[in-house]
Q: What sequence folds into this?
């Protein structure tokens, strides 16, 4: 995460090692003890404020006596952060009143230390329902009256949006709701696509931006790199930890933005990015999952599947909801027996109208620009997007669509499957095919490939792209997610479409 001048790298690392070793033996246990103590001290206040029929009490607007407890809890939480080394919390701007902005949108989201502005404002947040059952912490969470999301309830997302909308339109009767619209942790180098949940109510929001201007970044907690406990340990071993919280002016949506939450979210994101001095990228939380999924076919840097995933969602096809439909798509495509379809037939297959977005997706599979595509390729790509970590399951599905009556397929078929599964236009599978087809029959079955994959778990790196895999950034945010490269990709796609 850090880059030092070459001549000072060794000395800097050595001094950093000495500091961490010294702090681990001296200040770290003291800080950890006091931080835990302050959390325990806050618990009885939150417990008393939450007594009575839990759900009914929590549903009432904030009474005056809870405001007193708010002050006490804010003081206790501030001391807890002080004990953790956050001696200076620089606050810029002024927090709006709930009547002025019912929703606070916070970005960039990069760590669990982003809880600092939550404890300072005692704003409600959106949390998993399971969190309320955590000892001590669950009581503190329930006190701020969060909007709980239940994973077991298939209708939870709709209910969550309705609850946010109900509170946001209560004209200040409910506490403000603080939402992290990115939906995942990034390394703060840019702002990814905002989820529309905070903007669906169509009420004014106050953007809040976070900065951690520390010389050593021990705060960032992303997909790869140090785990939660290591981040805590390294942060508590720093002499000082700085954080800046800036409340930007309230953003009042236009009539067009109220009707279009996605437009509203994009415009607020641009305002926040400008204040932060960073770029924006159109990649989303789901794109991060796809690009960094752990599977036997890691996506190469030149994959077009990220563009494909965006187009899928733009059509209103939710991969997370349509996973159960993959088998039906597969059976329908298999019945075509390789017969290609035009854009109108493709629209009928997806049960969507012909549009610019659909034609853009169609062009991704129409490599020869003949106006026809193979539905089996779409189903294979869609399976990867729905199940990014289960690549062998996707290959098995593709085998079922491509294989002959004997249950085997050729090198050409395997090349088509793997090119589609990895989203590349050119791929040499000859070495892999020969390695699997050790009996030189000229055809292989899925069982042959599966046995080979079990014996060679890294077969993709060894046989398909040994010199092409791009290393992921050490901060866990994929290098090909940078706004510049994203723009280049879009330009390349546009050239293909033109």
A:
């Amino acid at each position: 995460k850090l880059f030092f001048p070459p001549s000072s790298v060794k000395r800097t690392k050595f001094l950093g090692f000495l500091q961490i070793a010294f702090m681990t033996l001296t200040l770290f246990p003291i800080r950890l003890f006091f931080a835990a103590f302050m959390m325990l001290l806050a618990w009885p206040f939150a417990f008393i404020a939450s007594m009575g029929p839990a759900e009914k009490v929590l549903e009432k607007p904030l009474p005056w006596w809870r405001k007193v407890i708010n002050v006490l809890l804010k003081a206790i939480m501030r001391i807890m952060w002080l004990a953790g080394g956050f001696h200076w919390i620089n606050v810029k701007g002024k927090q709006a009143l709930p009547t002025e902005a019912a929703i606070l949108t916070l970005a960039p989201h990069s760590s669990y230390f982003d809880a600092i502005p939550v404890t300072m404002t005692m704003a409600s947040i959106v949390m998993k329902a399971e969190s309320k059952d955590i000892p001590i912490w669950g009581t503190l969470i329930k006190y701020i009256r969060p909007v709980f999301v239940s994973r077991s309830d298939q209708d939870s997302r709709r209910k969550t949006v309705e609850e946010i909308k109900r509170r946001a339109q209560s004209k200040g009767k409910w506490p403000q709701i603080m939402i992290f619209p990115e939906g995942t942790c990034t390394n703060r180098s840019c702002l990814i696509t905002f989820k529309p949940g905070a903007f669906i109510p169509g009420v004014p929001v106050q953007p809040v931006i976070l900065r951690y201007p520390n010389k050593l970044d021990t705060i960032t907690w992303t997909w790869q790199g140090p785990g939660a406990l290591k981040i805590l340990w390294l942060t508590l071993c720093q002499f000082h930890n700085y954080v800046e919280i800036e409340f930007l002016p309230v953003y009042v949506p236009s009539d067009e933005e109220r009707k279009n939450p996605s437009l509203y979210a994009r415009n607020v994101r641009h305002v926040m990015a400008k204040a932060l001095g960073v770029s924006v990228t159109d990649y989303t939380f789901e794109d991060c999952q796809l690009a960094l999924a752990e599977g036997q076919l890691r996506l190469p840097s030149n994959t077009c599947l990220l563009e494909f995933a965006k187009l899928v969602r733009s059509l209103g096809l939710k991969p997370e909801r349509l996973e159960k439909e993959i088998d039906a798509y597969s059976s329908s495509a298999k019945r075509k027996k390789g017969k290609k379809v035009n854009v109108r037939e493709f629209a009928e297959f997806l049960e969507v109208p012909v549009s610019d977005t659909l034609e853009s997706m169609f062009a991704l599979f129409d490599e020869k620009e003949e106006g026809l595509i193979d539905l089996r390729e779409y189903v294979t790509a869609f399976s990867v997007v729905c199940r990014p970590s289960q690549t062998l399951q996707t290959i098995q599905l593709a085998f079922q669509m491509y294989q002959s009556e004997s249950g085997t397929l050729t090198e050409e078929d395997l090349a088509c499957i793997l090119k589609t599964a990895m989203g590349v236009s050119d791929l040499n599978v000859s070495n892999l095919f020969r390695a699997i087809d050790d009996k030189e029959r000229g055809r292989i079955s899925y069982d042959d490939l599966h046995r080979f994959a079990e014996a060679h778990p890294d077969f993709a790196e060894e046989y398909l792209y040994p010199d092409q895999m791009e290393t992921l950034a050490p901060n866990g945010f994929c290098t090909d997610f940078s706004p510049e490269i994203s723009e280049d990709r879009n330009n390349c796609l546009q050239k293909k479409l033109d």
Q: What stands out?
A: The chain has 23 helices and eleven strands. The first helix runs from residue 9 to 25. The longest strand covers residues 205-211. The radius of gyration is 26 Å.
